[in-house]
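Ticket #4471: structure export looks truncated?
Reporter: QA, pipeline team
Priority: medium

Steps to reproduce: submit the single chain below to the structure queue and open the exported record.
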Amino acid sequence: MRIREKVISLVFLAALLSTPAGSQEVPAPVGFAGIEMGMELEAVKDMLRRDSQFRFRGDPDVSMLARPNESLIETEGTSFIERAYFQFFEGKLYTIILALNPERLDHYTMYSQLVDRYGEPASLDPTQVVWEFDSIRMVLERPLSVKYIDTLVFDEILRQNARAESLNALSRERFLEQF
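Actual output as written to the record:
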C-alpha cells in the first residue's frame, strides 16, 4: 500500500510541477481607471472630466490628427500622472499613453506591479518592457510611461498606411514616366 501511495503522490506532484506557475489565464489589461479600449470619444471625455487624476479641460485638449479619421486627447495629469494621451481611430479609443511622474514613482516599482498583475513580460530591453495579450499590448517605457495599444486597430492602421504609401509611390512613378 505504501508504494502505491508514493506513486500516486509522485504522479500528483509531477502534474503540479508540469503546470507552469501562474499559468492561469491572466485577464488582459483593457485600459486605465475605467477608460477602456474601444470606447467612444465622447464617453472618454466624460470620464476624464469626472476623474481627479486628470486636469481635462474639455475640447481644448482634443485635437484632430493629420488623418481625418483620427483624433487625440492630450491632457495634464495630477499627482502620479504628468500627461496623458488618448488616441482614437474612427471615433474609438485604441491607444492610451500615460507619462508618469518620476518624482512620485519609479520604473522598478511599476515593473514589479505589472509583473505581479500580468506575469513575466513577452520581451524586455533597456528602453522598454512589453506584455502581449490577444489584442492588447502593454508597454512600460523609460524614463517612465505606460502604453496600452489595441493591436488589432494598430495593425489595421499600419495596413492602411502601407496601402497609401504604395499608391503614392505608384503615382510618383507614373508622374516621373511622363518626362
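Status: closed, not a bug. The export was complete when the record was re-opened. Leaving a note from the reviewer for reference: Residues 151-177 form the longest helix (27 residues).
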